[in-house]
Design a protein that fits this description.
Beta Polymerase, domain 2; alpha+beta; 19 strands; 5-stranded antiparallel sheet; Immunoglobulin-like
Length: 413
């Protein structure tokens, strides 16, 4: 058994409620002293939390016979980020469990503390603390693995430590710089998915697998607004890359992806370089109140109206109607593969897609495009595009894919 499998087994067997944020937390209150009040403290607005009591059968029967409808009540205190549970017609011993879960599965909560009020001393006693549970998991992992000779253990423990405190950038750094963790990536994926994230080509991200349908629709509506703004610059605008793959293959956004890509093409006789095309696109998006937060070799990173990122890629139509969008290979497409675009519905939003989606996917992802691949990487070969790169108004950032291939230490996506 490798060290990653040891970690997974221990996590499953003894710490299955860690982290609690993407599941229902079932807590059994202590029987050490009676109380009529519990307090739940969370690091979010308390109204985002759903709380229910599971009562013993004997208590439920008594309540039914007495026709009592509200055996307990909940009080929300936003100032202390707390929910109070007041026991009206039941006692502590009647409680089988306190069930706690998020009302919305798509936002982050890190920590939760359950307190029980001791009336005699007027003190609050901790019944459960997720931070202490996290620490206990880390301590036990360290103890169990201290005698292991597996070279993966040091980097693995670093990765998990950063993951538990949600320092995802540091966790990704450990993964990318470790010579040992790549072979056990499937285990790392299991760890990250417990937190509602995936380890994909962009790092550790809250991928579409963990988005609600309403979030997807809102995001795509924002994409549609960008497309409308860009259509005043060029008639050649549509969705590209993963959005096309998800639409054609699954009629949905790809589960392991986390952003949308928009393609904009310009005739090279009018726009002579990628740099000039990016500058034109940037000015137009700023004009309609979108914020540019990243500038790369052939695309911009733009914040959508609800705060998520959308990638805008530019391409140049060259002689013989050849077209390409970096990071795909140069001249990998023809204009007729994509334009004029065709409108289709995705997650309840009408959007423009390549004219021939199948041909576009084969040329962009190869003959095995139908098989989902969370580890897929583009070629990221800038040298093919240097003659049309052009000058830049702002310094270029490097994508994570470029940095991985070139060991570039600059800011990455």
């Amino acid at each position: 058994m490798n060290v990653a499998e040891q970690v997974q087994r221990l996590w499953k067997s003894k710490y299955n409620s860690t982290p609690w944020t993407n599941q229902e937390l079932k807590l059994i209150p202590g029987r050490d002293f009676p109380s009529t009040t519990f307090q739940i403290i969370v690091d979010c607005h308390p109204e985002s939390i759903d709380v229910k009591l599971d009562l013993k059968q004997s208590a439920n029967e008594q309540l039914m016979n007495s026709a009592i409808e509200n055996p307990y009540s909940l009080r929300v205190d936003p100032l202390s980020s707390s929910i109070y549970i007041d026991l009206n017609y039941v006692q502590c011993d009647d409680i089988k469990a306190i069930r706690i879960k998020k009302k919305n599965t798509n936002f982050d909560i890190n920590h939760l503390v359950l307190l029980k009020h001791e009336e005699f001393n007027d003190q609050w006693v901790v019944q459960h603390n997720t931070m202490e549970t996290d620490k206990a998991l880390l301590r036990e992992l360290d103890r169990v693995l201290q005698f292991s000779k597996d070279p993966k253990k040091i980097d693995l423990l670093k990765f998990i430590n950063f993951l538990i405190v949600k320092n995802f950038n540091a966790a990704v750094g450990v993964f990318e710089n470790s010579p040992h963790l790549k072979p056990v990536k499937n285990y790392l994926q299991w760890f990250t998915e417990r937190f509602g994230y995936q380890l994909n080509a962009h790092g550790i991200k809250k991928t579409f697998k963990f988005w609600s349908q309403s979030e997807k629709k809102s995001y795509l509506q924002s994409s549609s607004q960008m497309i409308e703004a860009l259509s005043t610059l060029s008639p050649h605008v549509c969705l590209g890359f993963g959005a096309v793959l998800g639409f054609y293959r699954d009629k949905d956004l790809i589960l392991h992806d986390d952003d949308i890509d928009i393609l904009v093409a310009f005739d090279i006789s009018e726009i002579e370089s990628l740099g000039a095309a990016l500058a034109l696109v940037e000015r137009q998006l700023i004009k309609v109140q979108f914020e540019i937060v990243g500038r790369f070799f052939s695309h911009l990173w733009v914040k959508s109206t609800e705060g998520r990122m959308i990638d805008i890629f530019v391409g140049l139509i060259e002689p013989e109607n050849k077209l390409s969008f970096y990071p795909s290979p140069r001249h990998s497409l023809l204009v007729s593969d994509i334009f004029p675009s065709c409108e289709h519905e995705l997650c309840g939003v009408m959007l423009p897609f390549p004219k021939d989606c199948l041909n576009y996917l084969v040329k962009t992802y190869g003959p095995h495009w139908e098989k989902p691949d969370i580890n897929f990487q583009h070629a990221w070969n800038r040298s093919e595009y240097l003659d049309i790169a052009g000058k830049r108004e702002h310094p270029m950032m490097f994508t994570r894919g470029e940095a991985n291939r070139r060991n570039i230490g600059e800011q990455v996506k």
